Amino acid sequence: MLQQYAVRRAAEPHPEGGLDLAALMVMCDRMEQSSTRPGSRAADQLTALNLQFHVALHEGAGNRQLLRQLSGVIQAPLVRHTLHRHTAEERARSRAHHREILHAAAAGDADRAKSVMRSHVRNTRDPLRRVRAVARLA
């Protein structure tokens, strides 16, 4: 819920500038490049870029208290753990979500950005559910 709220706020027009959409698109490009390379170094880079992307979205909301709350929830080990367990299809969907959030923000469509973030967060639940299901069977 906090991420959805943050993205909605960030996608709203801001007189002081808000999101740096060009920099965020570059991050998307770099995430796509990292996701096609094998190995733990690429996975670490993808994790770092993903975190940077989300932090930049949160910062775009212009709310320091919200940023503090989100930084306590979204941490590198959990992100890496989740990304590592995504299927190729889930990784592609995640990258598409990132770009769609930016397109919505560029259009000033805060509600669409929020909706895509909701789907994005739900997409991360599937790998975690698979891990829990396997653990229960063991």
What does this structure look like?
- With 138 residues, the chain is mostly helical.
- It has a single domain, classed as Up-down Bundle (Four Helix Bundle (Hemerythrin (Met), subunit A)), CATH 1.20.120.530.
- Helix content is 82%, strand content 0%.
- It has 7 helices and no strands.
- The chain has helices at residues 2-11, 21-35, 40-60, 64-73, 76-85, 88-106, 110-137.
- The model has no long low-confidence stretch (mean pLDDT 83).
- Head-to-tail CA distance between termini: 32 Å
Number of strands: 0
Compressed to H and E, one letter per element, the order equals: HHHHHHH
Question: Over the alpha carbons, how many angstroms does the gyration radius reach?
Answer: 15 Å
Helix content: over 70%
| Principal-axes shape call | globular
Helix-strand makeup class? mainly alpha
CATH third-level topology: Four Helix Bundle (Hemerythrin (Met), subunit A)
The CATH architecture comes to: Up-down Bundle
Q: Which CATH top level class fits?
A: Mainly Alpha
Please outline the major beta sheet. Answer: none
Unreliable spans: none
Q: How many individual helices? A: 7
Number of domains: 1
